[in-house]
# Entry
Amino acid sequence: MNIRFDLPDELSASAPPEARGVARDAVRLLVASPSGVDHTVFSAVGEHLRPGDLLVVNTSGTLPSAVDAVRDGRPVVVHFATPLDDGAWVVELRAPGGPLLDGRPGERLELPGGASLTLLAPAAPGSARLWRAAVPAEVSALLAAAGRPIRYGYVPRAWPLADYQTVFAREPGSAEMPSAARPFTERLVTRLVTDGVLFAPLLLHTGVSSPEAAEPPQPERFRVPPTTAALVSWVRSTGGRVIAVGTTAARALESAVSRDGDVRAAEGWTNLVLGPDHPARVVDGIVTGLHAPDASHLLLLEAVAGRELVQQAYDAAVERRYLWHEFGDVSLLLRR
# Structure
């Protein structure tokens, strides 16, 4: 049975916490483990970590991936999701009411500055939402000049790209913010390091999410460096906990686990879908935002912490009126 809960509209965070008078690291933190559920603020996350624990963080930066376009004389928005190896991009067409599902192969859309894109084929068999598209050669210049961060209906006004970056962002490439890391600040990271908590970087460029349907994650580009693989192995050998900061970090790290259970340097594309039938092998816990009831991310959380613990955490989050989505509150799920 999947995780079940009802999410009232008013629990969707509609603006960055700073705009609500809350510091980045002062959002609420729900900590769920086999010993129970605790409620605190994110700046106190160190009280639930131990010297020798390893936080694995995603260094991907957020792109201004939403671009206005014209389709058959009507305004639409194109979400540039993922660049492919052959130069095409995976894109999504959207209107104010949600995704447009009536794309046609060969259809051409006008972009700012006289550019255009052409839909080639669905990005996956049976998909009506995501398309492979031929795009202008200088997509990065187009996004820099005409793009803005992707946002959904629960965020009614635009916010600067800086509000969609984490303190770990080094390499732009994500269509949407790896938001679990947003509450970290340089001051908090410094305090955790001096307390003996370890950090290790990896990279996974996220595509677009789908609030409308419980779709599995699309293939995403990732990289686990040799030093991170070695540090994960060492922490496991010494009894420390490996904690992924975000579902993106968990997916990338578990994609680098070999058949014999070792973590090795890896890079390329990952098709890994974690869930109850494919549990996490090296991730002992996860720092994560709160996901919508139909999000495939919930299955990944089950893969790390188990269905019972995740259900307990979400029941408590709804009862205590935590805030959802990228500008909302955060949870720490620990399976042991």
In short: The chain is about 20% helix and 30% strand. The mean pLDDT is 95. The first helix runs from residue 139 to 146.
